[in-house]
Amino acid sequence: MTTAVETFEALRRRLTGALAVPGEPLHAELATGFNVAIAATPAAVVEARDARDVAETVRFAAATGRAVAVQATGHGLAGPLDGAILVHTRRLDECVVHPDGWARVGAGVRWQQVLDAAAPHGLAPLCGSAPGVGVVGYTTGGGLGPVARTFGWASDRVRAIEIVTGDGVARRVTAVDEPELFWGVRGGKGALGVVTALEFDLVPLPSLYAGALYFAGADASVVVHRWREWSSALPPEATTSLALLQLPPMPGVPEPLAGTFTVAVRFAWTGAPESGEAVLAPLRAAAAPLIDAVQTIPYAAIGMVHADPPGPMPVLEETDLLSSLPAEAVDALLAVAGPDARSPQVIVELRQLGGALAAEPAHPSALCHRDAAFVLTVIGVPAPPVADAIGPHAAALRSALAPWATGGALPNHGAAAGQERIARSYDPATLARLTSLAERYDPANVLRAGQVPLRSAA
After folding, report:
1. Residue 265, CA atoms < 13 Å, CB-side half-sphere
2. When comparing pLDDT for 255 and 220, which is higher?
3. Cα separation of 173 and 179, whole Å?
4. Using one digit for the tens of pLDDT, what is the confidence trace for 232-260?
5. What distance in Å separates the CA atoms of residue 412 and residue 200, rounded to the nearest whole number?
6. Considering only CA atoms, which of 112, 159, 165 is closest in space to residue 135?
7. Is the pLDDT of residue 132 over 70?
8. Longest C-alpha distance within the chain, in Å?
9. Which one, out of 49, 318, 411, 456, has a CA that is 20 to 30 A from the CA of 78?
10. What whole-number distance in Å separates Cα of residue 149 and Cα of residue 207?
């Protein structure tokens, strides 16, 4: 009887890269995601060296009845991947910035690499709040970054996609060549194949006026209500978010924020710094900040705006989209997650949408919910003594804000799998179209283990 390990030997011989099975050091290294609360247990990990390795793996999975998942940094890991083959793309590390305003990157590239390569040309990629996130997973899920109200979704800037679809065929996809795939991959979050490279436009933005104001918990009600009123009139040059923070005392957390309740107002302004300072003045006057870190910064330092943790950690996440944020919604939020609510969450965040995010793209895509007004993200760390309280509290918080929730969700926020989450990520027409594409380009359903599994294993 042939064992699984012996079967994988046949695939190993066809690869330029490496293959590891459980018990081998490379398997333990590559199967770990950013969210260490999820223990991934794939049957094998393939460290791909090129698109041919990816194609060989996908065809092998189809022939043996296995599923395929993919990761570069593990930020999108949403399940244990039991029995699947995990394609790890960190060796696909091509990163070329063209001075005339575009870039080509491999699937293993993180945003900070693009930031650093683009900076000498005065160019900026539409990265996310955490520069350590992988370019491909972020972009195929839409891509909502710190300057998004000015420049829109990262997925709308894509020029070309190189992808191995679920049938094991390597394809180059543009709006002209393979337009159906071009529509589906941008927003489809890996549902149709394994992306091996992206080409996308950059924007001319060497610096910006950006950072965060941090306020004491005692000022939470005043600050959050002021932020709600102030943000409602912001021009598209401004992108902002607000976070209720309960950061633990640990390395990297400034002393005034450690072990206490604080409020962070994040702000990025793409116009002249002087006008940005004037726009921000009403927030600065709401209360005395504990820390005022808003200043003119190089665009390559954009990670300081949100100051997301750079290293892996265990998290439980929930998310909703909101249609509006009236004063009653702020009161409901503070009643459940404010400084007196004894919330177990580390972060409760609201990101304002609108501006360029609401515009229709030049080339339509599978990204839905462009009309939402805010994204709510709830993040807890499942550690004693609050571990058991995180889930019920997140449910109570979502219930409190339900009158203003749209029922939708963005693919990149609150990484999760399952049909209920898929139905929240896409409207019915988009989901039907994506499913039809998946049936055409992934006939063996090998991509059923990804973050957007359009079809079940049955």
Report:
1. 30
2. 220
3. 7
4. 999 999 999 999 999 988 888 899 999 99
5. 19
6. 112
7. yes
8. 74
9. 49
10. 16
Six-digit token string for 354: 């609108």
Instruction: Please report how many Cα atoms fall inside a 13 Å half-sphere around the Cα of residue 134, on the Cβ side.
Output: 31
Tens digits of residue pLDDT in 426-441? 999 999 999 999 999 9
Query: HEC states along the chain?
Result: CCCHHHHHHHHHCCCCCEEECCCCHHHHHHCCCCECCCCCCCCEEEECCCHHHHHHHHHHHHHHCCCEEEECCCCCCCCCCCCCEEEECCCCCCEEEECCCEEEEECCCEHHHHHHHHHHHCEECCCCCCCCCEHHHHHHCCCCCCCHHHHCCHHHHEEEEEEEECCCCEEEECCCCCHHHHHHHHHHCCCCEEEEEEEEECEECCEEEEEEEEEEHHHHHHHHHHHHHHHCCCCCCEEEEEEEEEECCCCCCCHHHECCEEEEEEEEECCCHHHHHHHHHHHHCCCCCCEECCEEEEHHHHHHCCCCCCCCECCEEEEEEECCCCHHHHHHHHHHHCCCCCCCCCEEEEEECCHHHHCCCCCCCCCCCCCCCEEEEEEECCCCCCHHHHHHHHHHHHHHCHHHECCCCCCCCCCCCCHHHHHHHCCHHHHHHHHHHHHHHCCCCHHHHCCCCCCCCC
Nearest to 263, CA basis, from 211, 213, 302: 213
Rounded distance between C-alpha atoms, residue 365 and residue 383, angstroms: 39
Neighbours of 255 (CB within 10 A): 10
Determine the Cα–Cα distance for residues 162 and 109; give it in Å rounded to an integer. Answer: 14
| Structural contact between residues 17 and 47, judged by C-beta atoms closer than 8 angstroms | yes
- Contact between 78 and 38 (Cβ < 8 Å): yes
Specify the pTM. Answer: 0.94
What are the Cα distances from residue 50, in Å, to 47, 91, 164, 178? 9, 8, 11, 21
With tokens 């699937």, the residue in question is 107
| Residues facing residue 162 across a β-bridge | 172, 197
